[in-house]
Amino acid sequence: MSLLNIRNLTVEFATATGAFKAVDGVDVSVDKGEVLAIVGESGSGKSVSMLAVMGLLPDTATITADEMTFDGRDILRLTPAERRKLIGHEITMIFQEPVASLNPSFTVGFQIEEVLRLNLGMSRRDARARALDLFRSVGIPEPETKLNAYPHQMSGGQCQRVMIAMAIASNPRLLIADEPTTALDVTIQKQILDLLMSLQEDYGMALILITHDMGVVAETADRVVVQYKGRRMEEADVLSLFENPQHPYTRALLAALPENATGDRLPTVSEFLLAEDMK
């Protein structure tokens, strides 16, 4: 049995002009210790699907699914108290904008200590010691000093390391990373990805990596789900996906990789799909 299993997930948002379906019948599953990449361009419903799992969508969203279970537990039927024990403890998430995800009014040390006290019931002293260990484990320089820093006093890469430290603080069984390197420069992106993969192996976590970057997928994933306009287009192990993509949209994503350029510029996904239709 998969650790997380989602069947026929649909998410609709109420708007002034009617309902907008952001996710339409998506299936997603991930096994213990597996790295699953969910890939697709912006607007394909990748983040919304996982925010539905986390219970972080606004009240304007209507979520339905034939199944949404974590280790056999029905996520949609959990009581608020049961959900609080699961989300942020066994399932955690890293968001796209690390600086925006941290409260500017509190030190990063206070914020991670608060997570430890609320989720694990630690004393203030034990939470401080654990926060220091976590900062060291994610490679934050001068961790004793940085515990007392505010988010604006840290770089984007350091703030992302703080978010990762928060996410692994409770030894989660599933970590969801939503475009964790988007706001970072190329050098720091590689460092953050290497850190995530190292922690995933050390902790034995399942990892869902949401990305639009096929290069990241190739380097990190065991299995890949391709989404487009709220629907799942294709699912395969990473080697099969790159060597023998089955869906035109997957081929379009691969054709847009810089190393696959055959002319003066890369084709857009829309241009590639149009060319496929005309064959």
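Above is the first protein from milestone M3; the second protein from the same milestone is given next.
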Amino acid sequence: MSASAVTLSQALATARSRFATAAIADPAGDARILIAGLLGLSATQLIAGSDRMLSAEELGRIEAAVERRLAFEPVHRILGKRAFFGLDLALSPATLEPRPDTEVLVERALPYLAEIISKKGNARLLDLGTGTGAIALALLQECPAATALATDISADALAVARGNAEANGLADRFQTLESNWFERLSTRFDMILSNPPYIVRSVIEDLAPDVKHFDPMAALDGGIDGLDAYRAIASGAEAFLEEEGIVGVEIGYDQARSVTELFVDQGFLLLEDAKDYGGNDRVLLFVKSLSTR
């Protein structure tokens, strides 16, 4: 884009055209989100200010960001943040980018969390493999009587999660611990939640470049059959659950039966299964059977 006499609408049209030529999946949407984010504009301001002339500095920032998107870097990674369940969450190379499908886990966990709080007056959450802190922080925002411990194997991810807690005013009820699943834990929780790595290792190479090259591999690789994390969670959860505690996990679209079997084999009962916005199996919620305690 030339640095002379370019309006906001022209910059949008140029970005959209370049994305379309490069076969970006949503060229118009990506152009709008990217440029609005770069310039700090709302969707309304983007339309209302369409005739505004852009400065050379603004054009330079847009050009650099467009080039990054043409290399398949996701829009929200370029912007360094993403909205999730009403929160504004910073991203880093160490964190999975939280996606709308994970909001289904938060939505389905909320009624159970509210019920626990109504009975006990409070609730303690464990978010395994927290990344940005998205799941725990979304639930803390909705439930002021809840506290959370968020774990991850990445110290860098935990630093991002703590920053997100601080930025969203939730740091006083949010703690972090570097741990591989349950390794360093010693207390019990009312609810254990996780969006673990669940991609079958052999298909990772076939993932879209937006995912394969920019999400951390540790957050994607679920092992030979994609179920390694679920085995660890199902086998370890009981020792860290309060009576009538609940476990909730996000799953791959074809994993509902196999993941359910892993938990049932450990004495859990399926409370609920939920689909994502595309109609795919996405969330499972379990409770420990009292008869096995």
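Note on the second protein: The chain has a mean pLDDT of 95.
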